[in-house]
Sequence to fold (404 residues):
Amino acid sequence: MHMKKLSSTYFFVFLLIVSLSSSCENTSSNNELQNKSYNTPNITDSSTSPSIQPIDTFHNALGLLISGMDCSYFNTNNNIDTSFWNQYSNRVSESFLKMHENRLEPMRKWKKTISSNNKLNDTSLLFYPFSGADFLHAYYLFPEANDYVLIAQEKIGDLPDFNSISSQKLKLYLNAVDHSLGDIYKRSYFITKSMMADTKEGSELNGLLPLFYWFISRTDHEIINVSNVYVDSNSKLNTFTSSIENKLDKKIKGIKFLFRKKGDEKLKSITYFNCDISNKGFNKNPEFKTYLNSIRTCNSFVKSASYLMHYSTFSDIRGITLEKSNSILEDDTGIPFKYLNNGGWDINLFGVYVMPVKDFSESRFQKDLSEAYMNETFNKGKLPFSLGYHWGSKEQNQMLYIKK
Fold:
C-alpha cells in the first residue's frame, strides 16, 4: 500500500511516540501469567461499578506489547530483539497514525457533530453485530458508551505463554498480529475469509483475542480485568475458568474486558461473543436469543456486514436490533431501508448511495433507499471519511436512524 506523506504535525507526533514507546528496558515486574476472572453480571451499566480500581498489570502490559507501544514488562532478560522491536513499533505506529489522520479523527469529529445536532445519548450500550474484533471504529464513533457488545463468528482463541515464548516465536506472533490488521488499516473492515485464515487452529494467532488488546491499548485505555464468560441455560451471563471449559462445549462463550480511559475513573466494558446469529444459530442456542432480548436499550452500529440482515435467514437478529435500538448507525449492508422507513424513525442519510461492490449481488441494491438519497429532507450531506466496502472509490454511505 502506498503511504501518503504525513503532515508535519502528525510526523512530529509519530516520532514522539516511537521515541517514548519503543523502549525495552529491564523491569523487576512479576511476569507470572495472570488468569483472573470476576463475577460478571448481565450487561448492565459498567459506570455504576466502583470507580477506582487498579489496572491489571499483566494484561495492560500485554496490550502495550501487542500494539507495539512498550515491551519493557516482558523484556526482563533482554530476550526481545531490539532491532526487531523498533521496526515493529515504528511500523505499527505509522500505520495507526495514518489511519487516525485519514479516517478515525474525521470520523470522530463527524459523529460528535451529528450526535449533538440530534441530541443522541452516546453513553448508552453500543450493540455491534457482525463486528469481528472491531472495537476500534466502535470506540471512535461511540467514545462515551459505557459498554460495548460485539458479536461475530470468528473464534476467540487463546494466548501463548509470554513468559516462555522464544524471541523468534514472538517475532512471528507480533508480525501475524500486524498482518491480520492489514485490512483494517487499508479498508476499515476485516475480510471474513482472510480473518478466518489468520485466526484458524494452528495459525500464529489462533483466534482474534490479541486484536482486542491492540485496539484497547491503541485507543489509550487501561485494562482492569479480563474474564471468560458464557450464557447459561437460564440466559444469564456467567464467568468460567479453563478447568470447566469442556463442560460448556455447546454454550455460547465470550470474552469480557473491563477497562477505562487513561486519566479517567469511569469504567467501560467490551463483551465479545463468538457465535452464529442466523435464525438457524438461534434455534440451536435459544438461550442466547433470550439473552440478547434482555439487554438494555442501546445504540446499534452495523458496517461491512455482507448484507446478511437483508435475508430472511437473519430476520431474528434484524428484529432484535430494531427492537432494542434507540438509534442505529449503519451503512447499506445493515438493515434494509424498508424496515426503517415506516414512520417510526427519524432518517438521516450521509454520503452517496451506489450499487453494491462486485463481491455482492446487484439484487442487494435498494431502489427505495436510492430515491431517499435524492430527497433533501433525508439527505444530510457528505461524509468526511471513508468507511466500508467502497473504500476504493470512496463512494461511501452512512445512515443514522433515531427512534421516535
Remarks:
- The chain is about 35% helix and 15% strand.
- Strands lie at 125-129, 147-152, 221-231, 237-240, 252-261, 267-274, 298-302, 325-330, 345-351, 397-403.
